[in-house]
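Researcher: Going back to the complex we discussed earlier. I've cleaned up the inputs and rechecked each line, so this should be the final set. Can you rerun the prediction on the complete assembly and write out the structure?
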Amino acid sequence: MLTNDLRNRFEHSQSWLFAAWLTFLMRYRKTFLGPAWLFVGPALFIAMLGLLFSEVSGIPRATFIPHLAIGLTVWTLISGFVTGSTTIFQRNRPQILQGGMLLADLVMVDVFTTVLQFVHQLVIIVVVFVIFGLGIGLYALVSLVGLMLLIANGIWLTVVFGIIGARYRDLSEIVQAIMRIAFLATPIIWMPGEGGRGGIMGVFLIFNPFYHFLEIVRAPLLGNAIAPLSWLVVLSITALGFALAQLMYARFARLLPLWV
Amino acid sequence: MTLRVPVFLPDDRQLLSSPRKFLTDLYFSRSRRGIVTILDNVSFRLMAGERLGIIGANGAGKSTLLRVIAGIYAPTEGQVKVNGTVRGLFDISLGMHPEATGLENIYLRGLQMGLGLKRIKDLVEDVIAFSELQDDIEKPFNTYSTGMSLRLAVAISTMIAPDILLLDEWIGAGDAHFRIKVKTRMDALVQNSRGLIIATHNTDLMKSLCTHGLVLAEGKMVFCGNLQAALDCYKEHAAK
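Model: Rerun complete. Updated structure for the full complex:
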């Protein structure tokens, strides 16, 4: 049972964090800048794209660049969960064949690794806010709630896609193709017209789940209200997602070592 | 218990027989997914203090059987009931990260084996001492000589003593000096265990360690019981 496994192993949450931190650091060990590369790459992208697009679209930089910076950083987190989850069990084959770690442990370590990458990129958002002199009020704390929800969704998604991805290796390719499209369909490098909700894209936007997940983290930081619909969508997806993950874990977790 | 496993059976491919075949193989060859029975109706009971040796030809399913007992593979039919902690010493280098230092690898592997951080911390000194690596422990694992990596791998794998020990072949590699150290360590592990199951080809090893024997041939259990009878059965079987 997924929730049982997660609860029983929670005392090992320090181990999860440690394993994630260690694997994360080793990825950047021999590079010159180390994990700072996580910051440098996106920072340059945001600078270039921000300056260019704000000219092109006529939206003032002080509005567009923070929108872009937060959107891109949170998207990296979302995308990390979605694409990473399709190969998680194949990547952890040695650990599975050892028999010492439960699938729930592997899921949590992977989620923590992705979150660690995100934490390193938060610096970009801080820098952007300082440059444009944006303040944040107490309302911004709601963003933290949104972030926690997002990470929780990362957990069930890793379980579900991990299991499907181990059985059908095509999933990785399908997901990557979808994410490419989703990146353009979600208002990250563009802003929906009329202050965020109206305009021609407004109608289709509500069907984009990524948009809702992005909003619950981004909107409070920019001082915008979150539409109740977004909360509804996010909470429903969270509940349904965990239910699905429970079912799949119960049914397929034992078979997984035979698939990887 | 029976174990059936999905395997990918590739189409008949004759790579490189002609340029056209090369292209068709690359783009149009599909693997079919079939089910293969690796273990067929294997059933036995091992009591506390008994030591079982699993013997059989290559590919008979010995390693797979061990992994089923370890709880890594779930049986397709039937069940495995174990009283106590089980740990398998299978591939001792599996899971080492080449770019991590020896010390980091101790932690990584310890976590993979299911140990908590505090437990690993308490065991680190002993592992370093046994592996005789001292300062080299701070160097990346991929800079180690074969001997060094082997010593570390053995030291880590034998960090904790389980109730029931599963061995895929005896760990006896390394130079003469290290082999003695390993033997002492392994003997201690075996002595402290309530049950031992070892898969091996080595009949002398079985005679010195085990009380019972199980003969496996093509996934089927040919004999299980008293050690000498099992060895005789294996010899007969091998002669055919």
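Model: Worth noting: Chain A is about 75% helix and 0% strand.
Researcher: Good, that matches what I expected from the previous run.
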